[in-house]
Amino acid sequence: MGLKVKEISTGFIACLSLGLISQAIGNFFPQVGASLFAILLGIICGNTILNQSHLSKGVRFSESRLLEISIALTGLTLNMKDVLAVGWQGLGFIILQMIGTVVLAYHLGSWLGFSKKFSLLMSAGNAVCGSSAIGTISPVVEADDKDKGISITIVNLTGTILMVALPLVTGYLYQHQVIPTSAMIGGVLQSVGQVIASAKLVNEDVTQYATIFKIIRIIFLVVVAIVFSKFNTREGEPLLRRSRKQEQVKRVGIPRFILAFFACCLAVTLNLIPDELSSIAKKTSNQFEIIALAGIGMRVKFRDLIKEGPKAMLYGGSIGIGQVLLAIILIFVLFRS
User: Which residue spans traverse the membrane (predicted)?
Assistant: First the structure.
């Protein structure tokens, strides 16, 4: 046990340090947030001063285990009763928006020549909750570290651009009416932080409802993980057709941290968790996620970004535009007065 702690300590300290620096920078640029800075610093340092083999075990621990713990703790901040606040139209909007995003992202990725696994990571990251969704789906579809790192980087970059752009779009289309504006921001942006930062550029009412729309998406993370576990990720074979051998392999089930996430969410919904604990869980989850994102950035190599980056950015940007257009259509259909 002592040897294992020693093996991971140096890499963990490196990720922790980058996470703390990212938070300090993020305080000066709240519209961008610490998450994106953590990824970018991780990429830069992981390819230069921290590109050392003895850090690898600690970095892997930080980017995998801490992200899993962060996702599980997120469940302590969610109440499924919040779904009722936006009515059946709001619930229908989120379900259709998520399905449309998954279908769009997967087929667009296939058209651009990306692998099934990378396309599924991009689908989940954009449809649900960014880094957390990709961290959840990655083991389910057995994606490699390169695809995981690049997809998280692209999703965060796309989300940052949309975070600033969406208040301009909703101001033009809806004159910042609360429900359609909240649906657009909460239904499109990838992370909770991006949703809150973007909505605060409008007003407090939009911030409240946009967060609820976002919470509904996060609650569906469990469903997305279950559905994605049924997909055939072998290249050249139909996505929805699986062999008996593959079925046996996939029966390992949903990762334990997802079950913990859902159990925590149920506990909050049943009022078994005090508000103080939920507040602590939220802060701890955010801290762990930033450290994990620094680790994920450290595992992304410049050679991979040079090879996949430009096309991946085109991919991420196209998904973002598609999400906005889909949201405009759904808001028009579902929220007409």
Answer: 34-50, 86-106, 118-138, 150-174, 211-231, 252-273, 314-335
